[in-house]
Amino acid sequence: MLAVPFSLLLFVSNGTLATSGNTMDGGWQFNPAASLLALAVLSGPLTWLVGRWRPGLAWVAGALLAGGGLTTTIVAIATGDSGVDVAWAPSWGLRLAFDLDGLARLYALLATGIGLLVVIYARRYVPLHLHHQGRDEREAGPFFAAFLLFMGAMLGLVMARDLIALFVFWDVTALASYLLISYDRQDANARASALMALLVTGISALGLLVAALLIEDRYGTFDLGAVIAAAEAGDHSLGLTTGILIVSAALAKSAQLPFHFWLPRAMAAPTPVSAYLHSAAMVAAGVFLIGRFYPLLATEPRLLDGLAVVGAGSMAISGVLATTRADIKQVLAYSTISQYGYVVLMLGLGGQGHYGAVAAVFYVVAHALAKTALFLTAGAVTEATGERRLDRMGGLWRSMPALAAGSGAAAAGLAALPLTVGFFKDELFFAAALERGPAAVAVAVGGATLTIVYIGRFWGGIFLGPRRATADPVPLALVGPVVVLGAAILLTGVVPGPVARLAEAAAAVSLREAMTVSPAYHLDTRPENLMALASFVLGGTLLATRRFWSPAAMGLARIGQRFGPARAYGRGLDGFERFSGAMRRVEVRDLRGRVATILLPAGVLVIIALIATPTRDAFSFGTIQRGDAGLVMILIATCGAGIASTLPRDHLSMALTVSGVGYCLAVTYALFGAPDVALVAVLVETMFALLFLGMLSLLPRRVLAEEAAEPENHHHGRRDAALAVIAGVIALVVSWSALSRPTFRESVAVDYIELAPDAHARDVVTVILTDFRGLDTMGEITVIGIAMLGIAGLLRRGRLR
Amino acid sequence: MSPSSRYQVDAAQSRIDPSVTTVLTQTVARLLLVPIFMVALAILVKGYADVGDGFSAGVVAALGVLLQDVAFGYRAIGRLTIVRLAPYGALAGALIALGVTFVPVLTGEPLLRHRPGAGEPVAHLGALELITPVLFDIGVFLVVFGFAVGVIGMIARMHPRPIGPSRGTGATGGDEG
Amino acid sequence: MTLLFAVAVAILFGSGAYLLLKHDLVRVVIGMVLISNAANLFIISAGLSRGQAPIYPLADGEPVSDPLVQAMTLTAIVISFGVAALLLALVYRVYTSHLSLDLDELAEADERDEAVRDLATLTGRQR
Amino acid sequence: MSLDLTVPLGLAWFAAIGLAFFDGRRAWAGWAAVAALATTLLGTVAVAVDVAHSGPRSVVAGGWPTTIGITLEADALGLTFALLSLSVLLVALTYEVVAGVQARGFPALVLAMATGLLGLCLTADLFNFYVFFEIAMVSAYVLTGYGDRPHQLRAATIFLIVNLLGSVLFLIAIAALYHLTGTLDMEQLAIRIPIVQTNPAILSATLIFVAFGIKLGLFPFHFWLAAVYTGTRPAVAAILSGALVNIGSYGLLRIGGGLLPRELEQGAPVLFALGAASILYGGLQAISCGDPREVLAYSSIGQAGYILVCLAIGGEAGYAAAVLFAVTNAINKTLLFLVVPLRGPWVAAAVTVGAASVAGIPPAAGFFGKAAVFRSTVADGNPAILTLLVAGSALSFIYMFQMVGRQDWATGDGVGPIWSDSHLPATRIIAGGVAVVVIGLGLWPEPLLVLSDAAATALIGRLP
After folding, report:
1. Nearest CA of chain B to the CA of C36: how many Å?
2. A792–B10 C-beta distance less than 8 A
């Protein structure tokens, strides 16, 4: 990981950092995009190194980096667009092209701001967590490293303009979330959950990669800006396949149906992780991606309709499920799915000229504030009481008033009560729905109602009612961030302008046109207000009558467990494992099988090759000349000896027959006009026979006799014969086919014969061996030397003498 | 009981019976050694003019040494100095051949550039031409001879000592030297 | 002649392959030797000309045997010799460590090892 | 004056034989081997730099005319694989020297393998290719048994016999090609083969394919691979999977793509089918393996399929992708085989990096290997193959991260056994260094991309 700062230094020192958007000219100027990019790449590794050096300081590094990021983002919001554009991999036309535009600024603000709060919270939470699990406190270092890695990846992701760079950061978020969810390594459930999150988000991300490559194939560039420009110029449309791939990746990340199941499982992570990844960052990345590709996706209206359907479905189903969960973090997890269902629905509703995209980003901000606070509350409450189930808590407002107040504001924000920023998120949502007609309106009111029900149940279940658990005092650091967030929700509920400006700037990037929204309280009977009122009344009623309908909701939850995609995932993985296990059992494990599985497919390939090519005139029988009688005889003898060597039972006669083959071959070579080869063949055959007998003499005769006498399995016998025939056929077909061809007119052999006298020799073969092709001989004796080393190693532990 | 020690008992029972060696064969073997080396030398030297080269010469010479094993038994040849040093001879031979191959590179010529070059006059020493390919061939000879003799020697030293009062060094490969 | 050479190569190769499939390691070694022999015979028969030995003085008008395939065969013979010797030593070493030359028994030893490994490494399936 | 391209070869060769004289278990011998190999690598880098500036260089052994003497030629393709193989060998050798060499011949054998692989990448002569190939293979046979445990000996037996069969097939194919064309020089062969009748040419090509398929561990020729990779010591497994495997990919590229392009094209459907089978088979097998080394072994089978698919796609893009994938795959496997037996915080990080790289998750180098394969498939416009690759990639996610999740790499407390005989911090530093390289190449992939493009161009440019 050291290479990270190094490579960054490399391109910074090249002086090629291009800046844009800043007004000052001349001299060095502060480039927020470049600073954030540096943070994006360095945060994780730096924190890791600090953690390795002084585990106790890891959180300080994390807080400083997150704080720096936050400051930079705020500066960027004040100064406007900036960017970085450096060559990265010119061979592929890749550039480190990063734009800190409106969309990026909004998500960067969330990532760094909430990141900072969570780091401060985690500073106390993580040591406590480790303490409960009996782990070493020094293990906090890796936690902050992975956390900051995640934050960095988010920063890089939101700024990336180059599709490959975007994908890189996209996948790093998946990897970082894997590390964070599996932080409790000894917990098998945590590891399985981390794997699930990685598989769902990582495999769907492959679609994004393929989409990026398809886009490059179609538009000839990885630069998103250029692609969008080309698409707007009407050159090409995106293509439905590409669009579906992008949207699937985004929906999987945002935990929408049917990919939603990983998110509740991911609650196995320590609570600060849940607070950050699964409310403000990881799931936000999905809708961010849709926002980023919005101009392209909008070229395919069917995609947007699909988004709306998926969003509405996720919102409804997880909303209902959220009302049935007992574990407080599970309630929040399903709530997140449902809330992002809203966002996706809004994005689906909001094409050109519509409110949806603005509403969506506004919603993301409001939701992030509220949901983080609620998760942090859940963590603090669990820390104080040791409980995670709603039915074992209650009445905690007395012992934890500050927490109750902070999270009350957050719950109100999520429930869209007036005087919170949440009210406006729903107002915009309703406005977007109104543009699309009654069906959308009904869905919107239903969604808002569900939100009120489950969040009311959550907050009320913890803080109101009879007291069922005792709360130990919790450190201030676990309460402070909740209070800060609650205050922020109330503040922006009174002064929503800044949030609206941020949302407008972000939406302008998606919609490619400026949109203005002016959230304000209107005490009149405009439809939005009526819808809000309806949802309050409905929600309140449902909350009061929970006893009557909750069995039905539980039933739905059970059906979901029975037939839902989580089940499919589990079964799929099980199936893979079983299938794999079955394959392992049939995997060939003995040497003979291994040889057979080479001969058989090789035979099949040879036959295919034979059939696929014209065989007419390909084979000739050749002519037997007058002088060839001896050669014919000796070849027949060779064949006989070859077959004979497979027959004997005992090893000694086998050795003798195989030597016979060798000597027959030597005679063949001699008759062939190759006396050198014949000489060597005879000598080598003799030498090998000596070695063979020497080796046999080392083996006990009893073992040899037993081995030789042991009968071969009858079934094997037939198989062996068949495979031997196949092997013979391979050799026959290949050698006959090659030998049948009249040879090329000019052959290098003629040159060798002519040149031999020049090399001071009369024996052409020898001169080839020592001169023309001496390198072969050099190699050959090297092989002999290596074999000698090997034999020494095997027989004498390497000793040569 | 470890595998190797169990094996030793088996192998000891199955060793070649030393009584097959007789005084006559021993004498013949000794006497044959010199002519065999002569033949090997001839094959090596004449390689450029006639059948044969360093490789066959090496095998012939090795067979000559190994004839001793028929005569004296495996254990005896395991103790011969020439057998013990043979592997180093093989490596030295490889170094010689490698030298012939790569020394020309040092002078900026292509590898394996032999001296004297094509068409240049050659000094003779009897039938022997003084050209670098001969040196190369000597390297090959040494490698092959060293390999064959060395490996047989290794096998020979694997043979366990005869049952009964033992003499000599007979090692069984399992222990460190 | 062409077919005869091809058949001889095929028979040697086939016999070698047949021995490779036996459970006795010594037979496997012999099989390897036969297969190498088949390849060497094929290289020689792949020569582009057949006739007198390529040693000067050459008789005029008579074809000369292809010297290149002879050189190739020599190299191949030597390499296969070295490897066969190595294989022999390996077989011997396998015997001393398993006290068996039977491939079935070696496969059983493999399975035992694997069972031990699986027990030791499969700690908790992830779902 | 520029460095002669045979100097590194000679260096490695001298060192291999020179070191064989001495006991490699002594520390000085080990470090001498490391120094020799490092010098060889540096020399090869110097040659590569030279070639990058002034084009391919060649030399004919003995100063004879081409086709008479053996031509050695340094071009981008050969040098890419040479650099890769030498680097992997250097890392593995250093690792083992640090951990303590256990056999007398180990350093010499590694250098011998370096000689073989370097020669193989430099030679432009088909039979000479076989000879260097045998040098590398014989060293590998001996190295597989390194450690001398019963299972290592069994692995060596399997490895030797199966690969010897492959070598014989290759040898037969070479002889057949010589008979058909009357030359062994690759350049001449490439010119003459198109004139040869298809039937014998494609039969020889089939044998060559089988031979390299065995080396590469392609389905269905892979059955030796898992036992061997699992049985050998970590450094040897790294050598086999990171260096020796290059023979397969380089051979298929050089001989398939460079000499027999027509036959390669004719065989494309078969290559696609076998590639697909390999990807799915390796991936599926790897899922249920408990032993990380076995996971890696089956993963290698799957990865071989990717290379085959790239070859089948062919063209400059396909070959470049094959080179890139082969390079990243070799580095990944080296890293993982070396790091899997160790434990510690650095190890946990390195294992994650390696797993991410195999699964193709950025910013690990493996991402660009995967992306290159995907990209060439997208350009080829074959949705079925693209789907297959995505499926294979998904499988690699599953088995790699199941492997990561099964053990506690940071502490090793009670979870799984630790195989290493040595726990010296230095071995961890070496493994960590490879991990840094993997990340570094993932962050700055340009060298890899340039190299693979140049290699593909060199290959295509050679075609007549």
Report:
1. 19
2. no
- How far apart are the CA of B157 and the nearest CA of chain D, in angstroms? 18
Domain annotation covers residue B22: yes
| Amino acid type, A171 | D
User: Which chain D residues are within 8 Å of B98, Cβ to Cβ?
Assistant: 10, 13-14, 17
Among D3, D4, D19, the strongest candidate for a mutation testing the B interface, having the largest count of B CBs within 10 A, is: D4
CB contact under 8 A, D179 and C72: no
Counting DSSP H helices and E strands in chain D, the numbers are: 20, 2
* Interchain proximity C79–D131, CB inside 8 Å: yes
The span from the CA of A95 to the CA of A222, in Å, is 8
> Using CA of residue B152, residue B155, residue B157, residue B159, what is the dihedral sign?
negative
Total structural domains in chain B? Answer: 1
Name which of D138, D168, D182 is nearest C48 (Cβ-Cβ): D182
Neighbours of A74 (CB within 10 A): 16
CA A603 from centroid of its chain's CA atoms: 39
**Closest by Cβ to B151, choosing from C55, C85, C97:** C85
pLDDT tens, residue by residue, D392-413: 999 999 999 988 888 778 775 4
Of D18, D20, D60, the CB nearest to B110: D60
Angle of the A328-349 helix axis to the A301-322 helix axis, nearest 10: 160
Pair of tokens at residue A557: 């939850």
Q: Is A587 on the interface with D (CB under 8 A)?
A: yes
CATH class of C2-121: mainly alpha
* Span D409-433, pLDDT tens digits: 877 543 334 444 445 678 888 888 9
Q: Which residues of A touch D393 (CB under 8 A)?
A: 203, 206
- What pLDDT is stored for residue A155 in this prediction? 92
Reduce the secondary structure of D401-413 to three states and give it as a string: HHHHHHCCCCCCC
Residuewise pLDDT in 10s, chain B (177 residues) = 344 443 344 444 444 444 455 677 777 777 777 888 888 888 877 766 676 688 888 888 888 887 776 667 767 777 778 888 899 999 999 999 999 999 999 888 888 888 887 777 777 777 677 788 888 989 999 999 999 999 888 888 877 655 433 333 333 333 332
Closest CB to B55 among C74, C97, C99 = C74
Return d(Cα A483, Cα A403) in angstroms, integer. 7
D115 touches chain B (CB under 8 A): no
Q: Nearest Cβ partner of D61 from B91, B95, B112?
A: B112
* Residue B101 is assigned to a structural domain of this protein: yes
Query: What angle, 0 to 180 degrees and rounded to 10, lies between the N-to-C axes of helices D366-380 and A163-181?
Result: 130
Q: Would you call A117 helix, strand, or coil by DSSP?
A: helix
In angstroms, the CA B48 to CA B129 distance is: 9
- Which residues of chain A from 284 to 323 reach within 8 Å of chain C, CB to CB? none
> Roughly how many angstroms between the first and final C-alpha of chain B, as a whole number?
22
This model of the complex carries an ipTM of 0.92
- Check if D20 contacts B (Cβ < 8 Å): yes
Residues with Cβ < 8 Å from A313, sequence gap 6 or more? A257, A341
Distance between CA atoms of A639 and C7, rounded to whole angstroms? 8
| Cα(A35)–Cα(A483) distance, integer angstroms | 30
A279 by DSSP, 3-state: which?
Answer: helix
* pLDDT above 80 for A787: yes
Length of chain C: 127
Instruction: Tell whether A139 lies on the interface with C, counting CB pairs under 8 A.
Output: no
The domain of B65 spans 7-158
- D171 touches D155 (CB < 8 A): no
Whether C96 has its CB under 8 Å from any CB of chain B: the answer is yes
Contacts of B6 in chain C (CB under 8 A): 99
Q: Is C73:C43 a contact under the CB 8 Å cutoff? A: yes
